[in-house]
């Protein structure tokens, strides 16, 4: 709410994209009044620094508050009363979107109590949809994810369930499909014959900040590996869906994730590594003896003809040397190659797809250096998103996700099949790490030293 949701809702308010009849009811254990909650929202959106005070004050009137505990029905029933009063005031059967942003261990309790309190029942069969947004990570492992999914399936239809992976809302991530399937120049080489390896990296300079209570029970692999990283893998390797329809795209993403090779413990020891930044155990609400990883690197293979035998490396870490989210595609050395002999390495093209910061695409190619000798130098074709479309053209990922949920478009949300397939790949790795089959390395905060310990991926 503080980091993403409040600012995104205000962005939609500024753009006039919120429904005319719109309210938010906050629900948590904090002892707040509605006015106290509104003051909190003002602080979240930086209202004191904003010139448009009139818009801010109009915006905060959308917010109401109800104190309650996830485990107790009383609070849910009070929320139901607030929503009922609003329907009577507006004289409509309003649409209801339940946004669940809590630790995964509470999800089952929340879903059960939403059902018991009858909050999930539509007030009319003819009007007023009911949908639920669930923040990642969805479950802590395959079993809890499947249990949650079965429970959700009893309360909602699949078309009512919106599992958030906010990376799918980023402009550069959405552009992956357009880049791959709307341009013909890479089509013939986008396979094992043309590509040597794929590298996906999600690095953050900041540590866990004040999220120790949440993060220490999750770790980097659950936090971003099971979702963001694997979604990027799916988008870069999926087959052409033939249409931009949500069902078609989600089906093709799921097929890729279902093709991930599942490792045995001995393979996990060779194919993965994990680390924790020094000082992590001194962070607030972190167990002093914690072995939770803040960094991971793993090598994966897809069991499909297009990508058979192609190594895919995926890595992410907190307190790294830089902020960088990037996918690198290394192409094979052309054979035959009309190029000078080069003993130290092959001539290869590399595609850098920069998701953030400095959003854009670089394609590295070889050009002859002017002069009498045939000397080739590496140069780049570059596309810069913000220079091309302007700084203000980038919509916030959560803004796009919220609008998609309002409109009933599930393209940017994760399906049941994707969730299950990703956990089937991740689960054995987590179990092996819990048994210390892969020792936990320590690395210095904001240093590149951990990155210098690569897995044996053929470059």
Overall number of strands? 15
Overall structural class, as computed from helix and strand content, comes to alpha/beta
End-to-end C-alpha gap: 42 Å
Q: What is the second-level CATH architecture of the largest domain?
A: 2-Layer Sandwich
What is the CATH T-level topology of the largest domain?
Answer: Dihydrodipicolinate Reductase, domain 2
- How much β-strand is present in the residues? 15-25%
Mean pLDDT: 89
Outline the secondary-structure elements:
Elements: H1 5-14, E1 24-28, H2 34-44, H3 53-60, E2 63-67, H4 73-90, E3 96-100, H5 107-116, E4 130-134, H6 142-155, E5 161-164, H7 171-181, E6 195-203, H8 212-215, H9 219-237, H10 246-258, H11 265-271, E7 272-277, E8 295-300, E9 312-317, E10 324-331, E11 350-356, E12 360-368, E13 376-384, H12 385-389, H13 397-407, E14 413-414, H14 416-434, E15 440-443
Helix pairs in contact: 1-13, 5-6, 6-14, 9-10, 9-14, 10-14
């Amino acid at each position: 709410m503080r980091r993403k949701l409040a600012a995104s809702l205000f962005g939609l308010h500024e753009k006039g994209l919120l429904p005319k009849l719109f309210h938010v009811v906050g629900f948590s254990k904090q002892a707040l009044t509605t006015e106290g909650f509104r003051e909190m929202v003002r602080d979240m959106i930086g209202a004191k620094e904003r010139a448009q005070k009139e818009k801010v004050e109009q915006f905060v009137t959308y917010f109401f508050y109800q104190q309650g505990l996830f485990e107790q029905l009383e609070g849910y029933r009070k929320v139901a009363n607030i929503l009922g009063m609003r329907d009577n005031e507006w004289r409509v059967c309003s649409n209801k979107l339940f946004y669940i942003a809590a630790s995964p261990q509470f999800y089952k309790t929340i879903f059960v109590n939403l059902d018991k309190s009858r909050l999930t029942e539509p007030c009319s069969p003819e009007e007023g949809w009911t949908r639920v947004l669930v923040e990642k990570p969805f479950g802590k492992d395959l079993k809890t994810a499947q249990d949650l999914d079965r429970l959700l399936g009893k309360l909602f239809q699949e078309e009512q369930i919106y599992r958030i992976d906010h990376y799918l809302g980023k402009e550069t991530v959405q552009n992956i499909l357009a880049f791959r399937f709307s341009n013909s120049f890479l089509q013939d080489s986008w396979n094992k014959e043309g590509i040597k390896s794929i590298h996906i990296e999600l690095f953050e300079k900041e540590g866990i900040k004040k999220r120790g209570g949440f993060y220490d029970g999750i770790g980097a692999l659950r936090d971003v590996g099971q979702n963001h990283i694997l979604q990027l893998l799916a988008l870069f390797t999926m087959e052409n869906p033939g249409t931009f329809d949500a069902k078609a795209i989600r089906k093709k993403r799921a097929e890729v994730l279902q093709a991930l090779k599942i490792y045995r413990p001995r393979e996990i020891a060779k194919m993965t590594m994990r680390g924790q930044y020094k000082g992590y155990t001194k962070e607030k609400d972190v167990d002093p003896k914690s072995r939770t990883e803040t960094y991971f690197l793993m090598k994966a293979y897809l069991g499909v003809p297009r990508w058979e035998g192609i190594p895919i490396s995926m890595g992410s870490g907190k307190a790294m040397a830089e902020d960088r989210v990037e996918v690198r595609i290394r192409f094979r050395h052309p054979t035959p190659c009309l190029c000078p002999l080069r003993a130290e390495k092959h001539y290869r093209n590399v595609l850098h797809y920069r998701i953030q910061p400095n959003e854009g695409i670089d394609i590295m190619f070889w050009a002859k250096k002017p002069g009498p000798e045939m000397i080739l130098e590496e140069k780049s074709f570059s596309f810069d998103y913000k220079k091309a479309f302007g700084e203000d053209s980038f919509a916030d990922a959560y803004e796009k996700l919220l609008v998609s949920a309002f409109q009933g478009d599930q393209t940017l949300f994760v399906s049941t099949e994707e969730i299950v397939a990703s956990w089937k790949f991740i689960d054995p790795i987590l179990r092996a790490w819990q048994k210390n089959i892969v020792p936990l390395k320590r690395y210095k905060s904001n240093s590149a030293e951990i990155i210098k310990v690569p897995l044996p991926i053929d470059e």
